[in-house]
Amino acid sequence: GFEPERRSSHPYLCIDFRTLHSERVHRLLSFQRYLHSSRLLRGVPQQIPLHILDEDYTGQARCMLEKVGNWNFDIFLFDRLTNGNSLITLTFHLLNQYGLVELFQLDMVKLWRFLVMVQEDYHSDNPYHNAVHAADVTQAMYCYMREPLLAKSLTSCDILLGLLAAATHDLDHPGVNQPFLIKTDHYLATLYRNTSVLENHHWKSAVGLLRETGLFSHLPAEDSLNMERELGSLILATDISRQNEYLSRFRLHLDQENMCMSNASHRHFILQMALKCADICNPCRPWELSKQWSEKVTEEFFQQGEIEKKHKLEVSPLCDREANTVGNIQIGFMTYVAEPLFAEWARFSDTRLSQTMLGHMGLNKASWVLALLTERTTFCVGEP
């Protein structure tokens, strides 16, 4: 399933790849990590500080980890306190907290190396799709997995897959969307036949790192392959173009009241829905956090639009800085994407967290509406 991939034929898309041969696996090493490769990765794993592996966190970062299950967890502050290592620190902490490192007999050095490589495969120059977003989604996924219906039903394998999928769900994201890759005839669009292009790439990149680090190499081959396939199934569910498909299936289960959490396939589907919620939960965060995410994702849209204008391509919807604002983009996103999804999630898991998320989204939407009205009023008053 790992076909050789060629370099992009479009020099303006700032992504480059080189092929790495590791045993019988060809994987892509992103140019991002090639430029910023850590001293921890190449031949010196013994230099990893043992106090980090022992989870002896100090100061404010450790205090924050004690409240990692709080919905108002400030991932931006946590990223600063960990010196830009929020994804590594958070994911390692959660895996260790669940006892998964010991249960699955994960080699500590391999695990740390894997997490470092995952974080470095995210593009730090992306305003939105970067390692901090992945850390935020991982923290949200943890909150959902602690909900009563899930906490009493999920197996250790479910939890491991859920956390790994959250951490890797946007791995090596180029900062542009699928339609952009398709209309520029990018090699990834060709490779994945214009279907879930980014999600397939995130999944295959994650599998490449798992194999390169040998994180699951001690498991039976069949178990390792099953883990890779289920990881892919979770990541592929984050394709926003398939939103209605998943939402309709979710709604049907709820209408028929036939969701059975003792059924492995049903649990997997709920993990898919949880990851989908975690991926787009920014409108459900407190305003101070939600506003920052809104501005970051909009800036990434606008940067794509500027690339399209520069190369005389049709500007994608929402990507024209002159025709859109953060507010109108967010209001549309909440109305047509986020609200329908989180309304169904609240039907499935009617808890304090679900009501809190819906409450925040309502207040945030009202804030953006007010901001738009203020802008229009100011514009009208200022007219000659």
Automatic annotation (TrEMBL):
GO biological process assignments: signal transduction
Ranges of residues in domain PDEase: 53-375
Top-level EC class: hydrolase
Binding-site positions, Zn(2+) 1: H133, H169, D170, D279
Pathway(s) it belongs to: Purine metabolism; 3',5'-cyclic AMP degradation; AMP from 3',5'-cyclic AMP: step 1/1
Catalytic activity, as annotated: 3',5'-cyclic AMP + H2O = AMP + H(+)
GO molecular function, one term: 3',5'-cyclic-AMP phosphodiesterase activity
Pfam families in UniProt: PDEase_I
EC number: 3.1.4.53
UniProt keyword terms in alphabetical order: cAMP, Hydrolase, Metal-binding
UniProt cross-references to Gene3D superfamilies, sorted A to Z: 3'5'-cyclic nucleotide phosphodiesterase, catalytic domain
Residues of the active site: H129 (proton donor)
Amino-acid positions noted as binding AMP in the UniProt annotation, renumbered to this chain: H129, N130, A131, V132, H133, D170, D279, Q330
UniProt entry tagged with the keyword Metal-binding: yes
Cofactor(s) needed: a divalent metal cation
Positions annotated to bind Zn(2+) 2: D170
InterPro entries: HD/PDEase_dom, PDEase, PDEase_catalytic_dom, PDEase_catalytic_dom_sf, PDEase_CS
Family: Belongs to the cyclic nucleotide phosphodiesterase family. PDE7 subfamily.
PANTHER family per UniProt: CYCLIC NUCLEOTIDE PHOSPHODIESTERASE
Protein name: 3',5'-cyclic-AMP phosphodiesterase
Gene behind the chain: pde7a
